[in-house]
Amino acid sequence: MSSITQPVGGHGHGHDEHAHHPTGIMRWVTTTNHKDIGTLYLWFSFTMFIVGGIMALTIRAELFEPGMQILAPERFNQMTTLHGLIMIFGALMPGAVGFANWMIPMQIGAPDMAFARMNNWSFWLLPPAAILLVLSLFVPGGAAETGWTLYPPLSIQSGMGMDLTIFAIHIMGASSIMGSINIITTILNLRAPGMTLMKMPVFCWAWLITAYLLIAVMPVLAGAVTMLLTDRHFGTSFFNAAGGGDPVLFQHVFWFFGHPEVYIIILPAFGIISEVIPAFSRKPVFGYASMVYALSAIAILSFLVWAHHMFTTGLPAAGILFYMYATMLIAVPTGVKVFNWLATMWKGSISLEAPMMFALGFLFLFTTGGFTGLILAIQPVDVQFQDTYYVVAHFHYVMVAGTLFAFFAGIYYWLPKWSGKMYNETVAQWHFWLSFIFFNVTFFPMHFLGLAGMPRRVPDYAQQFTDWNQVATIGAFGFGLSQLVFLYAVVSAIRSGKPAPAKPWDGATSLEWTLPSPAPYHSFETPPVVK
Ligand code: CU
Question: To 10 degrees, the CA torsion angle through 187, 188, 194, 200?
Fold first, then answer.
């Protein structure tokens, strides 16, 4: 366990950071401090959010009118692939790991993450992977045109952009697995005296469970893309029908990863919401134990439902019924969580600062995405909606208004503790309302487009879809520009915000709020005792 002992100099007091730590760029390259690494993850996530967002805007610009405008069809498909991969593996997952790095040690009273050097390596694997993904646009044949799901036979036939994508996925998977090992080890071994598992903040529970999910499914994705690689270059036929393989097998393997993956993206968001709503309701979270059990139940069920992504592949009737009912069952633990959040607010002393506004936005819109998920789980309905914009609307309600809104809630909530500065409430409220309105302007019409039969992943469309596409495109550009307000809110807070008190939110009670703002570089050199 020597890796948890930081070279702090001295004997616990009067550290001279500069005598032992590099400064400037080398501080960030060589850092083993969980706060530095959390900051790196969060800025990386924001950068990828911008890159993936620009790709989304090129897609929406092309779809502003029927016919072909600015993108060649193959470029349109490449934008679709990279937008998905970059948002999932570059923006949402690293963002969640950034929160984990900052908050888990501070919430359980640990000095740092358990494997501090591996933590550095987990982060620094990500930029090369992101570069490979973006680079794939510029190689002969361009990026993969398969969408983020990489289905064969197209993914077997396409050019070297696919190989760069496979390599990037391997690297990002390794990063995720190392991050997960670190999170699990930290939570199981480095809790302060008295911090029993069932006293941990729900955010730590959400990440503990997410880390197990990651370790279970990232190797499955690695296996899937490795088989793809050998099919492409080494003469195997795992997914190649011409050689006796089965392209549908890829879908099974991919979605055995892919469905738990959506919970990997949403559970840390649930964790953040479970911190923010109690703080701004001045009440402890309602039904703590049931929140933990609901997280576990969602995680276990997530392994049993993957073929609901394959309802049109000719499953046997018994399979259709099983996957349909198993999928619907997930609404039960998810409902437990939503009702517990509502019960937390019930008769609370509620205030509506930006973190709470984003949490409430999350609650409304994530639940909408949950309901359309329930509709898509009905197999006869899914057969009609498969590959339409209804599906696009559904998962953007879950990923954007779900996870991204939870990230915004968490950033405004913890920024005072991270930076020692308060953000400007008026600017943050503008950010919330602009995001909330433009998000719905972008994605709500996609339900109508899907119901009317507009297919996804196609750069052209029939005349009758024009109006709602134009509304969606205007909304998308509005949503994109609204994020400049977010950037301004964060940067102006860090540069010139008012100094934050140790406890800026009077309802917040977990361990990190016992520290001054900003939290010291080494938060708990002497572990606190939790009663
Ligand atoms: Cu699924």
Answer: 40
